Amino acid sequence: MPIDAAKALAAEPRTGEITWGHRDVLLYHLGIGAGANPDKPSPATDGDELRYTLESRLHVLPSFATVAGSGSPGVISGLSMPGVDVDLARVLHGGQRLEIHRPIPVTGRATATGRIAGVYDKGKAALLVMRTEVADADGPLWTNDAQIFVRGEGGWGGDRGPSARLRPPAGEPDRTVERAVREDQALLYRLSGDYNPLHADPEFAKLAGFERPILHGLCTYGITLKAVVDTLLDGDVSRVRSYSTRFAGVVFPGETLRIRLWRGAGEVRVAVSAVERGDAPVLTDTIVEHT
Fold this sequence. Notes:
- The protein is an alpha+beta fold.
- The protein is 19% helix and 34% strand.
- The chain has helices at residues 5-10, 22-31, 47-53, 74-78, 185-189, 202-207, 217-232; strands at 14-20, 91-100, 108-121, 125-136, 139-151, 175-180, 240-247, 256-264, 267-274, 280-290.
- Strands 1-3-4-5-2-7-10-9-8-6 form a 10-stranded antiparallel sheet.
């Protein structure tokens, strides 16, 4: 069996230094659509949008943590850990959870420590939880968990792990917003470090079973968090404490995201769908916890 759960869990963590600056933050924000907010009459020069796009006013959307330092040590690094030997063509990014310990600075130098925190047997697939913990000289900054499915690698009788499925939110959403995905969105977003040709090369996308390149799931993840912060958290990125989601479907550049929001006690429940494909689910089991 290519995955040896005991060996993977016992492997020494991988540690590396990461750095970022205002240019990286600005590029990430543009990659998730900042400066094009349809709720603003002149978004490119709107004061609220300038907090994402002008270095003199800049704050950092917490989902930037998924690309800071190009995501080092990163998912690909984790897939080469001891005990893990898999075909990348069988790998599927199933979900993401981010915990923010304190606001991310605009410029930073930190240590990222990556390890496999869980290996679960889902029957027809194995589920790997790849955890990256990031800290600077002042202490912990964030913890990032990527849930990675490896198709065809389950069935060894191991622990199935906790269920990630949540009961759907009750009632009508408190707010519904729509965000257009530009035709070139994936081409811009990939400059933050994810150069997978699936998001740019039509021939590669066809080999992977898609009619054309798809948007990065983590780009949708960032677009959605920005919508939550701007719509229900008064534009205050420092209020976000954690953000988790399950990737339920793909998004094609040029489509429109419909983002439904339900307020709760210290949290926002979210559901995201693709408008042009009959509200096909994109993100489910999504929660933003906040102050």
